[in-house]
Structure formats: structure tokens, C-alpha cells
């Protein structure tokens, strides 16, 4: 595996290949990332994993500074997963002085996560668009764990006529049901126990029942939403200082959104 840090380097690296797979990540690899790597490996001549903790998707007061980073460990895991090129740019490579162009997926980017993390999807959409333009992969791989992120990326790919296929892979969970996430590392053992309410709540597949399971937790939202034509029950909760998100896919195909149940912070239902 080759570690590449500049746009020219990664472009030159993938130039000989026609079936390039890209897996965008923020590092601190876990089985969720590895499942995307495996899918990409199966379908591609060359696999690029990007490792970039994108400052643009964190707002001030969020966890950018303490976000887990361990490049050495990530290099080993990526190598074992058969990644060909690890693209690990410095922030100045992605956002050089004078940078001023942003992608705003307007309506979709303001709902759910976008409501509680203003500007988050502007940062996500911009960095993903840049990575897709830099690597120009045939396919890019995302996790259902971040269902709204995957929907935002699919939206921008369609809206901006990008020539790439977006693959969304199932959420990988721990044996206790908690979706794997880099942020789980913040949880104390007691907080982790508390956090198990999140997958339990979502397993009800019902927003009112889910909210009942989450009583006592600081809930940002528990909401049925249509994302990329698929109905999901999605939730975000705070456990101590850690904010966790998760979702489950609901079975019935979505016809329209008028009937969707909705329970939110400050609402009674
Ligand atoms: P991150 O490094 O957290 O930005 O995640 C990089 C990619 O891995 C994103 O597409 C995530 O949706 C995906 N991912 C993160 N956690 C999981 C998980 N538990 N299962 C499947 N995919 C995941």
C-alpha cells in the first residue's frame, strides 16, 4: 500500500486503473470501515481509502480537536484490508489559502443532522465532492450508519452530474447492538451501557415507542424520514459528552412524507 498526500500523487497513482473504488473516511478504522474496504476491494482494480478529518464538517464547540486519530494503526489495518492507496492529505491540501467554494445540498442538508449541526453537510458535501473530483473513482462506498450523509452524497452526485456510482453498505454493529462508530471510544463503560438504549429504541421501528425507550437520555431527534427513497427511523442522542447517531431501515416503501411520524426534542409525542 502506498500512502499519498497530494492531489497530483493520488491522481498519478490511480491513472493506470479503470475500475477505481474510493472509500472516504476520517480514520480510526473499525469493522464498519473494513466492511466498506472489503466491498471496494471486491469490485475494483484499485482501491483508494481517504483519511481526512475534515475540519469543515465540525462546528466550533464540536469534537474536532479530540477526534480519535491514529494513522499508524490505520495504515496497518488498511494494508491488511488490501487498500492500494491511502490518501491522507493535510488540511492545507484540501483547503489551501484562498479557498472559498462550498457545496450546499439545501433542503436535505438542513433536516435531521443538519438541523442540530448547522453547516455540517456543507462541509461533508464539499469534501466528498472534492474527493470524488480528485480520485475520479468508478464507485464510492458509504455506510448506512450515516444514512443522511449517503443521501446527501447521492443528491450532489445527481445534481452535479458526477460520473460515479455510490454504494451504501449495511451498518456494522457490535454484538450488543451498538452501531460501530469512532465516537464510541469516548464512552465510559457505564455510558456504553446507557448508549445501548439507542439501538434498542430503533429496533422498535416506531418513533413513539423509541422515544419511550430513550426517556432519560438527551435526545436531539427520533424521526421517521425518507432518505434516498427509503424510509428510516433515525435518531441522535447525547450520552455524557458523546453524541451518537443511528438509524434502521423501515420496510414499507415511502409514498409521500405527509403521514410520517415525528418526535423531536421539546415535542410531546
Ligand atoms: P467516518 O470515518 O466515521 O467518517 O466513516 C467513514 C465511512 O464509514 C462512512 O461512509 C460511514 O458511514 C461508514 N461507517 C461508519 N461506521 C459504520 C458502521 N458501523 N457500519 C457501516 N459503515 C460505517
Q: Overview of this structure, please?
A:
By secondary structure, the chain is of the alpha/beta class. The protein contains ten helices and ten strands. It has helices at 7-14, 31-43, 71-80, 91-94, 113-116, 120-135, 147-159, 189-195, 197-203, 207-213, and strands at 2-4, 20-25, 46-51, 85-87, 139-143, 165-169, 218-227, 230-239, 242-249, 262-264. The protein has a six-stranded parallel beta sheet with strand order 1-4-3-2-5-6, sandwiched between helices. Strands 9-8-7-10 form a four-stranded antiparallel beta sheet. β8 (230-239) and β9 form a beta hairpin. The N and C termini lie far apart (51 Å). The model is unreliable at 256-264 (pLDDT under 50). The structure holds adenosine monophosphate (AMP). Adenosine monophosphate binds at residues 25-26, 32-33, 35-36, 142-143, 145-146, 169, 171-172, 179-182.
In short:
The chain is of the alpha/beta class. The chain is built from 10 helices and 10 strands. Mean pLDDT is 94; it is low at 256-264.
Write the topology of this structure.
Layout: E1 2-4, H1 7-14, E2 20-25, H2 31-43, E3 46-51, H3 71-80, E4 85-87, H4 91-94, H5 113-116, H6 120-135, E5 139-143, H7 147-159, E6 165-169, H8 189-195, H9 197-203, H10 207-213, E7 218-227, E8 230-239, E9 242-249, E10 262-264
Parallel strand pairs: 1-4, 2-3, 2-5, 3-4, 5-6
Antiparallel strand pairs: 7-8, 7-10, 8-9
